[in-house]
Structures are given as C-alpha cells and as structure tokens.
Amino acid sequence: MAALRRILLIAYTALLFAFIFAPIVSTIVFSFNADRFPSLPWGGFSLQWYAAIFNDATIQRGLVNSLIVAGVTCVIATFLGFSAAYIDYRYRFLGKSVYLALAALPPTVPVVILGVALLTFEGRIGLSGTLTGIIVGHVVLSTPFAMALVRMRLADLDPDIERAAWNLGATPWATMFGVIVPFCLPAIFAAIFLTAAVSFDEFMIAWFVSGVNETLPVRVLAMLQGQVSPRINAIGAIVFAVSITLIVFAQVLLGSIAGRAARRKG
Amino acid sequence: MAIPMIELDRVAKHYGDQAAVADVSFDIEKGEFIALMGPSGCGKTTTLRMIAGLDQPTSGEIRLWGRRLNEDAPWERDAPLVWQSYALFPFLSVRKNVEFGLKQRGLPAAERRRKADEWMERLGIAGFAERGVDQLSGGQRQRVALARALALEPEMLLLDEPLSALDPHLRVRMQSELVRLHRELGITFICVTHSHSEAFAMADRVVIMNEGRVQQVGAPRDIYRRAANRFVAEFVGGNNLFAGTASSAGTRLRVDGPFGTALAPRPAEFTFQDGDAVTLVVAADRIELAPAPMGADNEVEGRVVTLDFVGSSVTVFLETAGGAELRIQQSLSQIENTPLSPGQTITARWSQDVGFFLSS
Known about the structure:
- The structure holds two protein chains of two kinds.
- Chain A is mainly alpha-helical.
- Chain A has one domain (57-265): MetI-like (MetI-like fold), CATH 1.10.3720.10.
- In chain A, 79% of the residues lie in helices and 0% in strands.
- Chain A has helices at 2-31, 48-55, 57-90, 96-104, 111-125, 131-154, 160-167, 172-201, 204-209, 216-226, 231-265.
- In chain A, α3 (57-90) runs parallel beside α6 and α3 packs antiparallel against α8 (172-201).
- Chain A is globular, with a radius of gyration of 22 Å.
- The two termini of chain A are 31 Å apart.
- The model of chain A has no long low-confidence stretch (mean pLDDT 87).
- By secondary structure, chain B is of the alpha+beta class.
- Chain B folds into two domains: 6-230, Rossmann fold (3-Layer(aba) Sandwich), CATH 3.40.50; 238-357, CATH 2.40.50.100.
- Chain B has eight helices and 20 strands.
- In chain B, the strands form four sheets. Chain B has a six-stranded mixed β-sheet, with helices on both faces.
- In chain B, β7, α5 (168-185) and β8 (188-193) form a beta-alpha-beta unit.
- The longest helix of chain B is centred in the middle third of the chain and has 18 residues, at 168-185.
- The mean pLDDT of chain B is 90.
- Classes of the chains: A mainly alpha, B alpha+beta.
- At the A-B interface, α7, α8 and α11 of A face α2 of B.
C-alpha cells in the first residue's frame, strides 16, 4: 500500500514537472535545430541561431543592458532589503506593522500598474528612458524579496548575541560588521542572486520605462512582434540558463541556512 | 572609609509605569562573590544588566570606584557577562569566540592567540578550539562563554543564571569550578540566580530581592539564621513562622499561638507590648524530636502529617492540636532511633535561644 502510494506520488510529481518544463525544454531543444521552423522531425544540430544572436547588435545591447540593470539592482536591492530587515529585527516602534506591510507591498501590486506609475513619475523627474530608471523600478520590485530572505535568517539570531558583542567591547558599528553581517552572509548572497534573477527576467517595468535602452526581455518582445524567428529560442535558452543558475545558487544558500537552523533546534 | 568598588545608589528602572527595579542600593567590594537572588521578576537580572550597561537606570546612580557609570556605553565598560543562553557567536569557532573581545580591544593577532590558548586550556576546552560552537554540549558552551569573558581579564565578571541550563551533576561541578576560579582570579563575581543552594554555596554575600527592592544583604549564614523580614524567612526556606501573641517573661518574650507556647530572646531592635501580634521564626534544623514531652519550655506536641526525604536529610511535618504546622529537618541518622510514621503523635522542642522575632 505504502509502496503504491509512493509510486503514484513519484509519477504525479514527474508529470507535474514535465508539464511545467515541457515548453522550456522544447525551446532549448529547438534552439539547436538547424531548421527554420520549430517542427518535428528535427532538422539536425546547429549553433546557427546562437551565432545569429551574437551577431545582432540590438540583442547584444539588450543583453548588456539587462546585465548592467540586474548587476546594479541586486546590490542596491540587497542593501535596502538587509537594512529593512535589520530595522525590523533590532527596533520596536509605533507603526511597525504598517512599516513591514509597506516594505513588503511592491510585488503584490500588479506590475502593469507599477510600470505605468513608474513611467509617469520618472517622466516627471527625467529618469524615464534611462537605465537608471529601469534600475529604480527593479529595485522597488525586488527589495521585498531581499528583505524576506534576510528576515528569515535574522529570526534565527539569538537577540542576546548583539548585546553580547557590545558587552565584549564591540561598538555598534563593529558589531554590525563583525557579527550581524557575517551571520547574515548566506542570506545576503541568496538575496543578491534572487534579486538579480528577478531583475534579469523582468519585462513589464522595463517595457514601460526603458525607451530606447531595451533590456533583453523587451528586445525579445520587439522581435516577436516583427517575425517569429528561431533566434528567440536561442535567447530563451540563454535567459533560462542565467535565471536558473541564479535561482539554484539562491536555493542552495537558503538550504544551508535551513539545514543549520534545523540542526540547532534538533 | 575606602570607596567600595561598585555602588548602586537608589537605582530604579521603569518600563512604562511598571517598575522592574523600584529602589535598589547596595555596595560591592573588590574581589567579592556576590549573588543576586530572588524569585523571577524580582529585578535581579535587570540590576545585573544595568551594571553591564545593557539597561539604563531610570533614576539613581551606579558608581565604579566612585565614578558615575550610568552614561557609559556597554562597549566602554569592563564588565563581561556570561549569558544564561550563553549567546555565543554561532558562525565562529570556539577560538574566534574567545578571541572576540580581545580583537575589539585591538590586540595583535599573535597575542590574541596566546591569550585565547591560555584561557581555553584553563577551562578545559582547548581540545575543541577549532570546532564550531553548535557542535558543543551545554557544559562545553558554558566553558566557552566563561573563557570568552575571562580572556578580557576584567576586574569583574557578571553571570546570569550560569548553571540553570546544565544538568544536575554538571551543575555541581561547575559550581565548584566557579568558586575555584573566583578564588584564583581574585576578581569580583556578580552572579544572578534563583537557586538558594547555588547562591549560598558560592557567594560571600547574598543580596535577596523581591518586587524590585532589596530585602536583605548578608553572608549566607546570617541570612539563614537571621532573616530580616517575612519574605526572606519564607523565601530561603527551612524556617517555621509561628504567629502568636506576645507577653513579657522576664528577660524573654513569651508567645502563645495555635502552635502552642514558646519563649525566645527579646529583640534588641524593637519592642513589643503585651498582647501584640508577633511572628516567631525558628529554623527547621534547630528543632529536635522526642517520643514524649519532658515538661520543659518550648515543647510542642503534634501529629506527624508526612515525611519528606531528600538525600540523607528528612523533613518531618507536624500538625499541632491548634492547627499550626511545624517542619523539622533532621539528618537520617538523627531519627534512626525515633519511630516515625504518619498519624503518630510526637514532641518537638527547641532551645529558647534559637527563635527570633520578625519586625512586622
């Protein structure tokens, strides 16, 4: 009975994963297809679409823009997320629940609305159409993820630890860099990878705000509107590889946190 | 008179309109082992934390060698604390934990290492130097916490319930180890505990607190033998409190109550009129048992209610005809020849000199 249930469970999980990943896998498979059209039978292995996208200046620029935006966003968002989580850990103040709700709010706002709002606002202050403008939007969107990760880590930190450091002669500054930051380091790295992934994949805000400075997802949509090219598959495969790498790194770091927390409690 | 090392002068700590510490004054001399004792919520831990600077007094003054300490930040003080939770740095090795305070003082790496080695050796944790602290047992963590604090070579060491998280046999070992360390180092130890046996076994003087106030300060023996008030007499345990009415009996005072009749020395500090309600305190271990009355003073007959054996000592609970309860503590060997079983009537007696009166 238990064996049957186990088999059913494994089969169900396998089907679920197949359903989720089939489109992605087909994208990757057909990105290596020599034929012009994504249809079976396969026309043979080829890297021509990859060669094509690396020779396309607009795609290259999109990729560079995406990398710049993701690289800057992940640093700023993680710094802000860490700060917000530390304030929550360290202080008790009036309106703290409101503070936390507001800090966690951006991902719950539909991105279209966030995009329009950012466009209007950034248009007024002259940020619209710049990479800085996109970065601002992505920071707004991804900071709550960073905060959530760091908060999870800080929840495992004995509140006496910080005072113990003061008691041993560490100033608050030395305590921050000698105790709090090292303790949060796995969560900080996880937050860097996760926010980079959020930014790298993000389309809507970038589409509203980017103007001529297209990021890769925006470029992909522009291409799709023109013609369906197998180059899309190649771009898709690259974007997927980058994102999944970032997410896996984040997940591994979080796993090590959870494992250690479980050992400590166990 | 020389300035005491630490003075607490009318110190109070309020949280909103709650007073964690209402009014606390006492002095600590250099090299003393002081125990702060009281029930939970009595303000003993808050008092300790104020000495460390982790809490700010709302009013009053804490002085170190006569200098006001209130405004000094915790990291400017030389008062390392051994935490009840140990509060070790979880991401650092044992060695790095012990070196932490030395590093904050800017000691060069080689010297930090030498001192850490010395203290780890001294506390028997040198074998774990490179381990992470989450791989250690409770007793080992305790030693790391001690080494981390003592490596600073402070002039005082603060301990917050240092033994409460240890299992009983470790607790006794650690207790004697703390006493040994205190004697060898000659520095001031201030230890918060709720356990009588810990406080009385380790401390030179005990400060008993209740509801944010000091109830009594004294050597363990004095507190046991001469409780300052009802709270202390009940809290330290092992005392009989006999309520009754006073009347003069020459140089002594006579008390009549539900327990019977007893004589005790007149208190020097206060006077009673005939007919005043008084409370007489007689230590349980100063009462003897006899099979029958001998017609002397301070004899009370009672029925054995129950017997409570702890190790080689036994506490006998008697109930008198008047409904008062007596507790008598004897060693097992003392009562070997006295048959005792619940329901049986027996005589308790004590010397006229051992009782004393509470002031209120």
